[in-house]
Amino acid sequence: MQSRIRYRVILPQAIIIFFGLLLLAVFIPKFSTGYLMAVSLFAVAIVISRLLDIQLPQGGKLHIDAAVIIASILLFPLPDTLVIIIIGVLVSMLLRRIKPSFSGMIYPLSLRVLTAFSSASLFYLVGGEVGKVEPFYGLLSLLVLCVTYSVIDLGFDQLTISINRGTPYIPAFLSAARFLAPIYMALSSLGILLAIMYKGAGYWSLPLFFMPLLVTRLSFKYFLDIRKVYRRTIEALANAIEVQNPRRRGHGQRVANYAIDIAKELGLHGRELELIGYAALLHDIGMLGIDDDSLDHLLEQMSTRNGEAPHAAVGAEIIEQVDFLKDAADMVRKHHFPIGKVREVDDIPIGARIINVASHFDKLTRSEMPEDKLTAYQAISRIKKEQGITFDPKVVRALINTLRKQGKLMDFVS
After folding, report:
1. DSSP string across 158-184
2. Burial of 180 (0-12, 13-18, 19+ CB in 10 A)
3. Which pLDDT score, from 0 to 100, does residue 34 have?
4. What is the dihedral of CA 190, 193, 197, 202, to 10 degrees?
5. For a disulfide at 328, which of 158, 203, 264, 279, Cβ 3.0-4.6 Å?
6. Other Cβ atoms closer than 10 A to 356
7. Of the candidate ranges 55-64, 224-233, 317-326, 383-392, the one whose mean pLDDT is the lowest
8. Domain locations in the chain?
9. Residue 245, pLDDT score
10. Which residues face 129 on adjacent strands?
11. 54-55 vs 61-62, strand pairing mode
12. Phi (first) and psi of residue 76, to 5 degrees
């Protein structure tokens, strides 16, 4: 199993490295020495830009050097652009790595070469000319260059993440594209701006270029920091739920992990995936203040078996008070609703159906009583008996597929 996963990871990387090196072999001998000073300065700009890359919360990096590479494609012949990329990528990686490895350096370099070559080729194909930057008359070629470069760059980055994690590629790409589209537009615009400035101001355009680039980077970094604060606030609320009952400790986080994996398996992405994660973390927030030994808890349990779950309604009312969580409230409200009691399955949000299955699975496999604690296979067998009555069958299948990929479930579960 491990050898098969390793093969699946290494093969795409080997293909990318092969084509990247092939393009280098074809184009580098044509390098024109007439631009030596300019090429060196742009290579230094790539080095500095790559040192400013931002680590993304979902994995991968935001590559700030995209702006410099787009400007290089507009200003220099393709061989010169490839030389700029080679020098910039290799030097930046040598500065970052104490012990650089061959594969660790050649693979990112090959990605950059393939991205630049593909986007530059399309730019030339639609009428773009090297050294001729026309924001109005050449709008189509500029648009093709920026969109192509952004899509390929993001596509390769998400491909690397997907093959390493064994997660579906298309949902990951769509989610990342939706999240990062504005910042890629900003970087592309800065690349065009640098090319225009360079034609007029020459070498002085490079230091001037880094001012708006740094502002763009800082703005995006602050945006990510705010999102991180949101996440930590939600996690703090989830921990508050569990403090009063040590037996529930970690339940919210585990349910959130299961829910996100199931949602990805179902092809969900972007804002919907994010909201499912938040709702899963907070699905029991309505239990705050209810003592496990009280009459209220006993009544709560009896109501939950009927799908009413008063704590879910209370939790939804709490979440509705927070602006960025409002859309998750209905998932919390209906996460105990059995699908057999509604006319249409879609009357219950997909997030609520996912949380219902994920929460039930976690409770079955994490019981404090040894005699009640089930294995993953036993828990799935019990859940399958209630699919179509309590649980959505397609969500149950997604959970099974997720557990199989994680090696937590035997293959003969169907």
Report:
1. HHHHHHHHT--HHHHHHHHHHHHHHHH
2. buried
3. 53
4. 50
5. 279
6. 27
7. 55-64
8. 2-227, 244-405
9. 64
10. 132
11. antiparallel
12. -125, 155
pLDDT at 308 over 60: no
Four-way CATH pick for 244-405: 1.10.8.10, 3.30.565.10, 1.10.3210.10, 3.40.50.450: 1.10.3210.10
- Going by C-beta distance under 8 Å and a sequence separation of 6 or more, which residues neighbour residue 398? 262, 265, 266, 354
164: closest CA among 248, 60, 244, 258?
A: 60
**Which residue is listed with tokens 């502002």?**
215
Taking every pair of Cα atoms in the chain, the longest distance, rounded to a whole number of angstroms, is: 85
The CA dihedral of 370, 371, 376, 379, to the nearest 10 degrees, is -140
Using only C-alpha atoms, the chain has a radius of gyration, in whole angstroms, of 26
Residues 6+ apart with CB under 8 A from 56: 62, 176, 180, 224
Handedness of CA 380, 386, 390, 392 (dihedral sign): positive
Using CA atoms, how far apart are residues 130 and 120, in angstroms rounded to an integer? 10
- 152 versus 13: the higher-pLDDT residue is 152
Q: Where are the alpha helices (DSSP H) in 244-309?
A: 251-265, 270-281, 295-305
Residue 364 structure tokens: 């079955």
Tokens of 100: 């650089």
Beta bridge partners of 54: 62
Q: In angstroms, rounded to a whole number, what is the distance separating the alpha carbons of residues 355 and 266? A: 13
What confidence score (pLDDT) does residue 148 get? Answer: 94
Quote the pLDDT of residue 160: 80
Alpha-carbon gap, residue 356 to 391, rounded angstroms: 7
Structure tokens at 94: 């040598």
Two structure tokens written together for 258: 């299961």
141 neighbors 123 (Cβ within 8 angstroms): yes
The model's pTM: 0.73
63's tokens: 């590559």
